[in-house]
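User: I'm new to structure prediction. If I give you an amino acid sequence, what do you actually give back? Let's try with this one:
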Amino acid sequence: MKGRTAGAAVAVGALLLTGCGTDDGTPVLTWYINPDDGGQQALADQCTEEADGAYRIQTSLLPNDAPDQREQLARRLAAGDSSLDIMSIDPPFIPELAEPGFLAPVPDDVAERTTEDTLDGALAGAMWKDEIVTVPFWANTQILWYRESVAEAAGLDMSQPVTWEEIIDAVREQDKYISIQGVRAESMTVWVNALVESQEESILVDPAASAEDLETTLDSDAGRMAAEIISVIGQDRLAGPGVASMDENQGMLMFQRDHGSFMVNWPFVWAATNAAAEDGSIESDVPDDVGWAPYPRVDAETPAAAPLGGINLGVGIDSEHHDLAYEAIECIVQPENQAEYFVTNGNPPSSESAFDDPRIEEDYPMADVIREALDEAAPRPQTPYYNEISEVIQDEFTPISGIDPDRAPQRADTFIGEVLRGERLL
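Assistant: Good question. You get back a string of structure tokens that encode the predicted 3D arrangement of the chain. For your 426 residues, that looks like this:
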């Protein structure tokens, strides 16, 4: 839905939601989908056909931006909107919707069948208070992409885990740029959380605590180390002159050019880089110089915890079709459908067996690295107050050229506490 505003998306949704059944009495399930390359609509059509008249799935498009998607869903759920039969939900926003009872419980048999081979990281993102409250659909994670020529010149053995320090040293020595996400946006929380989790620590002490009692741990050795890594890259201008506006796409574009070296990013960059080489936007031999490896470590002896993204499917508590909605969800998330969705839309499966599809390895030769990263990936802070925490982190850890590694984590902890206690506004 590129180029369309969130308000327009609401209007489109309103036009679609004209009833709960067809003229012949077939129940209509509305699936609120996030923008993609048509894959969710194709699955809606496929599962409608396979339902053989038991239901029909129609889709309603959510806004482009994940926070805007969260806002629209939360408002509709709070208003008791019965059209929310199926929802595509970003993992960080699940606790906020689950805690007040906005999500219909996942039946035990459905939970068992749909998660029997779900990768551990993806499964963690589908839960709240140790219960499965949504069904994993597709998962996402970042890995380390690198220019093989740069890594070779730096003397790095990329068959072994590498650290942020090694990458920083290599970039300095060769006058290259690291592609990260330095923009003040959700991607900053993704990065900070991954750096903390990669030190076997978590930003939250007790995710289920009330707003008044919720404690964050950024003012710690792990939080300060995360800030130090980000600060060095920013203050030493190792991510280039446009780092303050660098998102995932801008980082990819820089990685494809002469100053490209190392990049943490999602799997979409592989298909995009190959497409750019084919249409002449970049040199045709760039893809041949691209390698991939697990997410960088903070400490050489501690495995990294890569970021977790993706989409889970939930059912609104006020939906009039709970049973049919979960029946449709079971159809949507079949491993073979997840594999198809990966090769057509570039979004990795949450199902381990889906990675066995030979088309995946053919199109994504780094699929094993992605699968392993998803198994070890760590969700962002799981709490109903995630939005507040994320906004504070974005404020305190940007611009990355001005971070004080000793003060930013402490300010973030203090700011979060004051916001949650109602003593300060975002």
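You can read the tokens as a compact description of the fold. Here is one thing that stands out. The domain at 6-133+309-366 is CATH 3.40.190.10 (D-Maltodextrin-Binding Protein; domain 2).
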